[in-house]
Structures are given as C-alpha cells and as structure tokens.
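quick q for whoever's on today - can somebody do inverse folding on this one?? i tried earlier but teh output was garbage lol. tokens:
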C-alpha cells in the first residue's frame, strides 16, 4: 500500500498511467479486431512495477498502450530522443532507443531492472547510451 508521503513524491503522471494499465487488463479478446489476445497478467504486473520504478526518475509522462499478442508498450519522448519499452505477454522486457539522427539500439532489460532503467533514462535525458 502506498503511503501519503510516497504519493507526494510520485510524478503527476504516475497514478494516471497506473490506471491506464489497469484499464488495459480489461480489454477483451480481439480488442484490435485482428485477433489479438487480451493483455496478459504477467505483462500487467510487470508494467505496474516498471512504472513504479520509472516514477523515481525525472521523466515526462509516457504513453502507455496495448500491443498485439498480449503485451504493453511504454513510450517516452524527450526532445528528439525516444525510448520504447515493451513488456511481453510473459513479463519479459525489451527496449528500443532512437536518437535525433535516427540511430536505433535495442535489447532486453535484465533482472537488474533498476540499473538498466537508470542507464536508459539517463540516455533519454541526453547522455550517450554507452556512458549512461
């Protein structure tokens, strides 16, 4: 349970995005009219945990939406950099970064979630991906 003091430290977008994830859990089968599965419980759980972790960084409000197959995508854009984080139906997490020159990098987020998110969010805020 979140205390009032913890809520005051959350960014303004956190509760809205948490509600959005909850709403995604209610999507029916074939929500996209292309036969997509419902958003799977491991993806819902991981997305909620991921947003809680991301709330500790100074980031703009993300976009959160379902992806075909039962996953969730969280996207951030800051100036000319984009960070896409996809939570797969089984709860695994992958990312894609794209910078101002159109250069992309992709990979998986390991069990060391906090360190990987630290590196990716610092990249989003302007550092090089290797240095972050």
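ok took a stab at it. sequence:
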């Amino acid at each position: 349970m979140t205390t009032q003091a913890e809520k005051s430290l959350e960014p303004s977008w956190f509760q809205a995005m948490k509600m959005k994830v909850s709403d995604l859990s209610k999507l029916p089968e074939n929500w996209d009219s292309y036969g997509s599965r419902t958003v799977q419980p491991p993806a819902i759980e991981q997305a909620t945990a991921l947003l809680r972790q991301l709330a500790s960084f100074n980031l703009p409000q993300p976009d959160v939406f379902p992806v075909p197959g039962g996953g969730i995508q969280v996207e951030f854009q800051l100036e000319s950099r984009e960070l896409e984080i996809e939570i797969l139906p089984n709860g695994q997490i992958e990312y894609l970064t794209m910078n101002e020159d159109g250069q992309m990098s992709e990979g998986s987020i390991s069990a060391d979630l906090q360190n990987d998110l630290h590196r990716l969010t610092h990249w989003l805020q302007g550092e090089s991906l290797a240095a972050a």
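fwiw The first strand starts at residue 63 and ends at 67. also The CA atoms of residues 1 and 7 lie 10 Å apart. so keep that in mind when u check it
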